[in-house]
Amino acid sequence: MSLPTPMLAVRVVRIEQASPLVKRFTLQAEDGRDLPAFSGGSHVIVQIPAAGGLIHNAYSLLGSPFDLSCYQIAVRREDASRGGSAYMHAQLAEGDILLISAPNNLFALHATSGRQILIAGGIGITPFMSQMEELQANGAAFELHYAFRSREQAAFVDELAARYGSRCHFHDAARGQLCDVAALLQGLAVDDHVYVCGPASLIKAVQLAGAGQGIPPERLHWEQFAASPSDGAAFTVVLARSGREVRVAAGQTILQAIEQDGAVAVDCLCREGVCGTCEVGIVEGEAEHLDQYLSAEEKAAQKTLLICVSRARGGRIVLDV
Fold it and tell me: Which domain holds residue 175?
């Protein structure tokens, strides 16, 4: 396994407090050139120094895909995180240099003559900001539904309202303005598409409502930048190239078990199933796929898995490592 793209050096040129818990960072290439092109919904992997070693977190790009002079990302302060958000909030300063990956898009818009319905919860607003730039520029029909605990805690509300007007619908829980997902999905046209990003509970609600109303899965799209749970029974991984067997405990990932064993070096950036750097081939057995990187077709084919989050379906799996 090797990293698919080199890391890019960028300078932090502006830091803004978007809400009490969210900061927006504007990044420019250290050499002053334009940054690589991206499409709405793309993310980058940011390399963050921490006490226990480097952390690699995925962050959506907020800015316009038509302006490559800079990137923008937003980071929510998470007290229970691995330390990446704490560093970004407390230590990163304007003028500092970061290393980031080239953009990748696991949450791209789908071409349609119908409406694009965007449903965001909390920090899940971030991928929609670049998507709306793209949709507006293309004259597409779209609407945003943004749910948050309170307007005072939410990021970018005034900015979105000013730029997109009546296309934005805000659901402020503190004022009793809850987002009724089931009602929202009623009466969709056959060429409408739905996108959701936010807490697992919101994504699940959209999935259940869509299934209950018979909306085809190919018209429902979601993204959640959080590691999938690594629970489940223990199992054995066989490293095919050496024949070595590694035991993966309950609550442990394949990646962690291989690293703990120490016999084989493996690469992984995000450790959350979104970047694809730890994808390996399946020689024998089947995987329980918990990533967001592989397509539904690739998961069904059982040819590869991402060792940072996915597990064996059964007591043993043989990998091309």
Answer: 116-223
Q: Are residues 125 and 211 in the same domain?
A: yes
Mark out the alpha helices in the chain (DSSP H runs).
Answer: 84-90, 126-137, 157-164, 181-185, 200-212, 254-261, 296-301
Is residue 14 domain-shared with residue 96, that is, in the same domain?
yes
**Which of 203, 223, 243 represents a domain boundary (last residue)?**
223
What digits encode the pLDDT tens for the residues 53-102?
778 888 999 999 999 999 999 999 987 666 789 999 999 999 999 999 99
Give the integer Cα–Cα distance in Å for 133 and 62. 9
- 237, 248 Cβ separation under 8 angstroms: yes
In this structure, what DSSP letter does residue 61 have? -
pLDDT in tens, 261-284: 888 888 777 777 888 889 999 999
Last residue in a domain, options 100, 125, 154 = 100
Distance CA 268, CA 101 (A): 12
